[in-house]
Specification:
It comes from Sphaerotilus montanus. Residues 40-249 form the Metallo-beta-lactamase domain. Pfam families: Lactamase_B_2. This is Pyrroloquinoline quinone biosynthesis protein B. With 281 residues, this protein is α/β, with parallel strands linked by helices. A hairpin with a 7-residue loop joins strand 7 and strand 8 (148-154). It starts with a strand and ends with a strand. Helices cover 19% and strands 24% of the residues. Strands 6-5-4-3-2-1-16 form a 7-stranded mixed sheet. It contains 8 helices and 16 strands.
Length: 281
């Protein structure tokens, strides 16, 4: 299983200028590309900058199939604007195979009508992730990824501002993802934050070979008494997670200077993701 972090690039390198170098981006992430064979890819969320990067950044050519226009499989963990509006950048080409929960599909049909717009271009084939109602966990598979097994776990992440019912969410509004390589047994788990993942996802985190925490504030963790710790104390709790690699997609918003914060993260074996960062499991 191979993962590539996509942040939209810093200064995208045109495909015609493959030798041109560019510094690493430190901006907020837009997506993670995932592949079971290194040839066929699925995107976990997609921002507008990432959609542009896929078609313009020559540095992605080292990953066969990734910058290809045929990359049309996308898993959405929620309906946040930064996670879904990049779908419009994929409108030219084959239909998008979209894996999402009923709640997310509803949001993108009515509150933020991205899907009706796409029907006028490439079209969308919706593959339901059955996390809804009393079903808080579901296993599913993705076409073109026969060696990977995906599990969606309902989480309590924040709802988007455009949500039809912002005051009361429903199961499936946000999910975390666990991915298992059926050949090697390696496990990958990603969630918006420790707080959003909650108690239901703790077991998945413990089993993960790589834990990736997303672009939300990574500042809280449920302790044994059900309370929440904050700031640098969270790193002590993260130490208890048995994942072989622990990666943060964005710099946490803590009351500590960047230098001290980076030092603390490194001391606890926590990595900060960079644009085009590769993770092989």
């Amino acid at each position: 299983m191979k993962l590539v972090v996509l942040k939209g690039g810093d200064e995208a390198v045109p495909l015609a200028q493959c030798s041109r170098a560019s510094p690493t981006s430190t901006r907020a992430p837009g997506a993670v590309a995932l592949s079971g064979d290194g040839l066929h890819w699925v995107l976990i969320n997609v921002s507008p900058s990432v959609a542009t990067q896929l078609s313009t950044d020559a540095r992605l050519l080292r990953h066969p199939g990734l910058p290809d226009a045929a990359v049309r499989a996308v898993v959405l963990t929620d309906a946040q604007v930064d996670h879904v509006t990049g779908l419009l950048g994929l409108r030219d080409g084959a239909p998008i195979h979209l894996y999402a929960t009923p709640a997310v599909f509803e949001e993108l049909t009515h509150a933020l009508p991205v899907l009706p717009l796409l029907e006028h271009y490439c079209g969308v084939q919706w593959h339901v992730i059955p996390v809804a109602g009393e079903s808080r966990e579901a296993v599913f598979h993705i076409e073109g990824q026969p060696t990977l097994e995906f599990t969606a776990v309902a989480t309590d992440g924040p709802l988007p501002r455009h949500a039809a019912q912002p005051a009361s969410g429903e199961v499936g509004d946000t999910i975390a993802l666990a991915v298992r390589d059926l050949v090697t047994g390696q496990r990958f788990f990603c969630a918006r934050s420790l707080a959003a993942a909650g108690f239901e996802a703790v077991e998945w985190m413990q089993q993960a070979d790589c834990l990736l925490l997303g672009d939300d504030r990574v500042d809280t963790w449920p302790d044994d008494g059900g309370a929440w710790t904050t700031g640098l104390d969270m790193l002590a709790q993260l130490d208890r997670v048995g994942a072989r690699r622990k990666v943060l997609m964005a710099m946490p918003d803590w009351e500590a200077g960047p230098g001290r914060l980076r030092g603390e993260l490194a001391r606890h074996g926590v990595e900060l993701a960079a644009d085009r960062m590769e993770i092989n499991l």
